[in-house]
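Supplementary notes (optional reading)

For those who missed the lab, this is the record we used. Protein: CoA transferase subunit A. Length: 291 residues.
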Amino acid sequence: MNKQMTAREVVAQLEDGMTIGIGGWGPRRKPMALVREILRSDLKDLTVVAYGGADVGMLCAAGKVKKVVFAFVSLDFIPLEPYFRQARQSGAIEVMEIDEGMMLLGLRAASWGLPYIPTEIGLGTDVLRVNPGIKVIDSPYDDKEWVAMPALQLDAALLHADHADVRGVCQVSGPDHHMDDWFARAADKTFVSCDELVESDYFNDPVQARLVHWERCHTTGVVHIPGGAHPSSCTPLYGFDVPHTKTYVASAKEEGGLQGYLDKFLGATEEEYQQNVGGLEAIKSIELPTY
């Protein structure tokens, strides 16, 4: 079974109006090469579900997004993602702003085929006030109330892994795989870009197999794109590109805005993009962050 695809073939399977989950966390292990391919496409009216970073900001500024379901949209070392902030403040997008834990439960509900999962998270907070569609239900066993966090069903998920094989076995060997396994299971289709494409017997080693966090049956396609998470990090291979991220953030205050940034860096292909940011070897040499 060979699930190899190109980034362009992945985007060709996406349609206007879809709900797209994007894995990673802020500036960590985002499938940015796949996001850039969306930026080169005509896709629009997307609902994006993400623990967001520049992926969300770029798609909003490019007019690709109708709605964002999010727990945060941040560049971490730069707290506020500038283009998402502009879109939110101008009212250009619809939003569903929820707690980090509620979003996880929404993905789990979709993964398990449930309409909702009851939780205490959100009770007594403005999350319920700003999201009137999220209901509070009575417990059938006592007099307690619960938030019924609805399932976040995804048409497709976009993820990035450090290693994968052609069958769709994907490895995240950094210290945190975030919620990528739940994104994969909550989606009808899951597309994974990877830095290194390995032979399947690589996963015969129990040490490597323990770093596989979702079943390969959930992986629809694998795209081999070394450096594909840039400018986010892909631990343990490379860190996030702080100077480039600062350039991206600064573009939000410049006359050309995102289009000026894209004209300078995006290119017609991922190869051109990487050349424009200094080349693959430069990406691989970015120092890992220390926390």
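If you only remember one thing from this example: The CA atoms of residues 55 and 272 lie 19 Å apart.
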